[in-house]
Amino acid sequence: MVRETLTGLKLLAKSDGSVQEIFLVVDKADRERIRKEMHMINKEWRKS
């Protein structure tokens, strides 16, 4: 899951009952591109 914050993006990484928050500091101009790339990476990980 990817959510926008004031300074960038917040990711939630989940596995076997644990959750890790990851904060990325990203310029506003790059956020949509990064969001799309993270979505594609997530899709690839779910295939394997």
Tell me what the structure shows.
With 48 residues, this protein is an alpha+beta fold. The chain has one domain (2-47). It is 35% helix and 40% strand. It has one helix spanning 31-47; strands at residues 2-4, 8-15, 18-25. It has a three-stranded antiparallel β-sheet, with helices on one face. Strand 2 (8-15) and strand 3 form a beta hairpin. The longest helix is centred in the last third of the chain and has 17 residues, at 31-47. The radius of gyration is 11 Å and the shape is flat. The model has no long low-confidence stretch (mean pLDDT 91).
Q: Compute the number of strand runs.
A: 3
Order of helices and strands: EEEH
For the sheet with most strands, the description reads: 3 strands, antiparallel
Mean model confidence by pLDDT: 91
Helicity level, as a percent range?
25-40%
Strand content is 35-45%
Shape: flat
Query: Can you list the strand order of the major beta sheet?
Result: 1-2-3
- Cα-based radius of gyration, to the nearest Å: 11 Å
Uncertain segments of ≥5 residues (pLDDT<50)?
none
Instruction: Give the distance, in angstroms, between the N- and C-terminal Cα atoms.
Output: 18 Å
**Secondary-structure class:** alpha+beta
The overall number of domains is 1
- How large is the count of helical segments? 1
